[in-house]
Write a structure and sequence with these properties.
Layout lengths: L3 E6 L5 H10 L2 E7 L3 H11 L2 E2 L3 H6 L5 E4 L6 H10 L3 E5 L6 H13 L4 E4 L6 H11 L6 E9 L14 H4 L3 H16 L5 E9 L30 E8 L4 E7 L12 E6 L2 E5 L5 E8 L2 E8 L5 H17 L9 H20 L3 E2 L2
Parallel strand pairs: 1-2, 1-4, 2-3, 4-5, 5-6, 7-10
Antiparallel strand pairs: 7-11, 8-9, 8-15, 9-10, 11-12, 12-13, 13-14
This protein binds nicotinamide-adenine-dinucleotide.
Nicotinamide-adenine-dinucleotide binds next to loops.
Length: about 350
């Protein structure tokens, strides 16, 4: 593959993961930009790129063919539309934007652009997810009745007091942050059935008062004691889909759960087999009934290094899409659909009843 010049917009926590995966996967990071110039300089120095002084100058860089947008969610739409207007290929971090209307404006910009858009929904690219998809698509799981998707941290609120925990900047808490990955992966594995109704409950217990929150480490930290926490830190949702499938999502940034009593990952309950995997794990567990007995199996997945392998696979798909050799690993339309379901989630949690997905 010809080397693709990449510009990185937003040089915070996830940007260096992008930069490393991109450099391993046939991209060259050419330029970095962040509203905090020191962050752009630090990432640029680390990867041998230059730091741009504005979004416009990054987009005008002659060697930037593709852009990754990894800024807080309230800035996604602005940066994404600017990149697409400049005809750059775009890898846009999840969640797509704050609202469905913003997603619509990004989709419209993508329609007009010579650049193509791939959503940053990296969990799909994990080896275990790929293996589970193979089991579903080859018919080995049979008709799916239930998917249970779980991502529960005992203490893992990101950037407490900053944009992650400020609804006007993030769109919400753990559901739009982590739950959107679980929702996406469950729907992707199920062949993207239409979600008809959502019933959701959300709690906000651990993030406030900010000074009282205890955790050993914090993504996007340290906490800002005088900051804002007005989002949910735990949520449960039931999605009823066309065709009878239900998807249960259990997600938390913080929860009092005894160690080891519940496993994160996805559990697929089908007519022929049941499948469980941790998204970035190295094995997939399954059970089938044969001659009246239940047979359990554990399959090692390849490549086994879950997190790095998933990021590399995401960038390989992005590179193939840019080269005209394939479709995006996750489409703009899917990013928009996730936003519709997320909006129904928040409406349901606020009203305390089931909501039709519009
Ligand atoms: N795919 C994943 O697993 C994953 C993991 C973490 C974060 N994310 C997503 O990546 C994005 C960034 O998350 P993060 O954890 O890196 O956050 P972060 O807070 O660590 O980094 C965000 C960066 O954006 C910069 N920024 C803020 N406002 C800006 C603006 N107006 N213009 C330019 N730069 C601006 C900040 O200075 C900061 O350096 C979010 O959309 C988040 O949901 C995805």
């Amino acid at each position: 593959m010809t080397e693709i010049g990449l510009g990185i917009v937003g040089c915070g926590g996830i940007a260096s993961v992008h930069a490393d995966a991109a450099q391993r996967s046939g991209f060259r990071v050419v330029s970095c930009w962040d509203s905090h110039a020191d962050r752009a300089h630090a990432l640029a120095a680390k990867v041998g790129a230059t730091a741009s002084t504005s979004l416009e100058s990054l987009l005008a860089h002659p060697s930037v063919n593709a852009v990754v947008v990894a800024v807080p969610t309230d800035v996604h739409a602005h940066c994404a539309k600017a990149a697409l207007a400049a005809d750059k290929h775009l890898l846009l971090e999840k969640p797509m934007a704050l609202t469905v209307a913003e997603c619509d404006s990004i989709c419209a910009a993508a329609e007009r652009s010579k650049g193509r858009l791939q959503m940053g929904l990296v969990c799909r690219s994990a080896s275990a997810s790929q293996h589970a998809l193979h089991l579903v698509r080859s018919g080995q799981v049979g008709q799916l009745d239930f998917i249970q998707a779980r991502g529960v941290r005992r203490r893992g609120i990101p950037g407490l007091g900053g944009w992650f925990t400020t609804r006007s900047r993030s769109g919400g808490g753990c559901m739009i942050d982590v739950g959107v990955h679980l929702m996406d992966l469950a729907l992707h594995l199920a062949g993207w059935p239409r979600v008809l109704r959502v019933s959701a409950c959300a709690a906000s217990r651990f993030g406030s008062p900010i000074a009282a929150y205890r955790s050993a480490e914090m993504w996007g930290g340290p906490p800002r004691i005088d900051g804002t926490f007005d989002v949910e830190d735990a949520a449960i949702a039931l999605l009823r889909c066309e065709g009878g499938l239900s998807i249960e999502i259990d997600v938390a940034w913080a929860a009092n759960i005894p160690e080891g009593v519940a496993r994160d990952g996805l559990l697929l309950r089908g007519a022929k087999a049941g499948v469980h995997f941790e998204i970035f794990g190295s094995e997939v567990r399954s059970v089938v009934e044969r001659d009246g007995d239940l047979h359990d199996e554990v399959t090692a997945v390849q490549p086994p290094h879950g997190w790095d392998a998933a990021w590399d696979a995401q960038y390989r798909r992005f590179g193939q899409m840019i080269g005209g050799l394939g479709e995006p690993a996750a489409t703009a339309q899917e990013g928009r659909d996730l936003q519709r379901i997320t909006a129904a989630f928040y409406e349901s949690a606020a009203l305390g009843r089931e909501i039709e997905v519009r």
